Amino acid sequence: MARVRDVSFIRKLCTLGLPPQTVAQCLLPELRRLIPSHSAGVFWVDHQGEMTNLYAERLLPPDAMAAYYEKHYAVKARSFSDAFHRRAQNDDPVSFHSFSRAEQDTDYFRDVMHRLDAYHVLYGILKEAARPFAQISFYRGAADKPFGKGDAETLRSVLRYLAIGLGANARSTPQEDTAITVEEDLGIVSIAGAIISASESWRRLLRIAALAEVSPRNALKEREAIELFVQRLCEDLVSEKGAAPRAREIIHDTAWGRFAIRGFRLPDPKQSAADQIGLLIRREEPRSLSLVRGTGLAALTPQQREVALLIAAGKSNREIADDLGLSFNTASSHVKQVYARLEVNDRAAVAQKLLHLAQSAVAH
After folding, report:
1. Distance from C-alpha of 128 to C-alpha of 41, rounded to nearest angstrom
2. 3-state class of 34 per DSSP?
3. DSSP secondary structure letters along 134-192
4. Three-class SS state of 129
5. pLDDT, tens digit, for every residue of 245-297?
6. Which fold has domain 2-165?
7. Cα(301)–Cα(176) distance, rounded to whole angstroms?
8. What is the C-alpha to C-alpha distance for residues 352 and 301, in angstroms, rounded to an integer?
9. Please, are residues 32 and 138 in contact by the beta-carbon 8 Å criterion?
10. CA-CA distance, 125 to 136, in Å (whole number)?
């Protein structure tokens, strides 16, 4: 039953019509509930199989990615595009691999896979109208068991949904209100934009906020682009040097999501303005995604989750019946059951409860 619920949730995420970059960030953790692994990533490619963008839960730092590009990415006979084409040409779109002792002794493994603790990998090729457009990968570490046939079958069962949710989308950025904050972190930078103190999670948030695309071929330019982004933030967020400290917030919309970035000067021990700025970055997700996240956490059947989302969208019982192909009485019965399961008494409270569940889960 748990697996059916997870698959139903993944299917719903993939049919929201949101940018694939936004979907990926919520989708990968849910997929890892089905396929146990410490992290996963999505790699989008062009018609030549060259990587154009990626989202990975464990990401090589810009310098390491630049080194990977120069040393390994385009090496003939083992380039990324060659490996992608080989997998895409297989009859089975899913494959798995464990690195042998000999493979673990190569520069590529030490430079890339070891740093990501990726000793076992499960691959899935995503296609649109028979054209391969992306690869999804799951990773297990040295202490984990290898991927097997059961993991491969689970991935095959959801590939058609992933191809929809992670494929080309008409919207490049979400065009709807955000609902909950899913990530936030604080970093300290100089007035000139240099990073002084920051966690890895903050650096990752800054990276996707600053860059429209993350890919090895752009890695050499990443540092410069990120520094320029931070410099502009500092100029826009903070008053001129010498003025009283103040804080402002900028809303920055991208295909990765909406980022609310708050900047404030940090005082020195004498309480005067210093040449350091705190940047608090929050990533917020679209309301439709938060509502789906909430239904996945509620004690609802698949049919009731559909009804709950329609209630949250402001649909009447008659409209719910028409949308789901149900009789009016059946739709009304489902609405009452949703109220009971969520322990609410009216339609407005349904959305509030789902958003509360979503926010509580993220907070923990």
Report:
1. 19
2. helix
3. EEEEEEE-TTSPPP-HHHHHHHHHHHHHHHHHTS--S-SS--S-EEEEEEEEEEEEETT
4. coil
5. 455 889 999 989 899 999 888 876 555 556 788 999 999 999 999 999 899 88
6. Beta-Lactamase (3.30.450)
7. 27
8. 19
9. yes
10. 7
**CA atoms of 161 and 171, how far apart (whole Å):** 18
Task: Compute the mean pLDDT over every residue in the chain, rounded to the nearest whole number.
Answer: 88
Return d(Cα 137, Cα 121) in angstroms, integer: 7
Q: The domain 180-285: what is its CATH number?
A: 3.30.450.20
**What top-level class would CATH report for the domain 298-363?**
mainly alpha
pLDDT digits (tens, 9 = 90+) for 8-62: 889 989 999 899 999 999 999 999 999 999 999 999 999 988 999 999 999 888 8
Please report, rounded to a whole number, the percentage of residues in the chain having pLDDT higher than 70.
91
Q: CATH topology of 180-285 equal to that of 298-363?
A: no
Those residues whose C-beta lies under 8 Å from the C-beta of residue 19, and which sit 6 or more positions away, are: 169, 171, 172, 173, 174, 255, 256
- Residue 216's Cβ-side half-sphere holds a number of Cα atoms within 13 Å equal to 19
Q: Is residue 50 within 8 Å of residue 217, measured between CB atoms?
A: yes
Residue 17 CB partners (closer than 8 Å, separation 6+):
169, 170, 171
Q: List the chain domain ranges.
A: 2-165, 180-285, 298-363
Single-letter residue type at 38 = H
Q: Strand pairing partners for 55?
A: 42
Residue 24, class by beta-carbon neighbours within 10 Å (0-12 exposed, 13-18 middle, 19+ buried)?
buried
Tell me how far CA of residue 221 lies from CA of 65, 224, 235, 237, in angstroms: 11, 6, 21, 24
List the structure tokens of 337. Answer: 């059951």
Q: Model's pTM, two decimal places?
A: 0.87
How many CA atoms lie within 13 Å of 117's alpha carbon, on the beta-carbon side? 12
Report the distance separating Cα 139 and Cα 41, nearest Å: 9
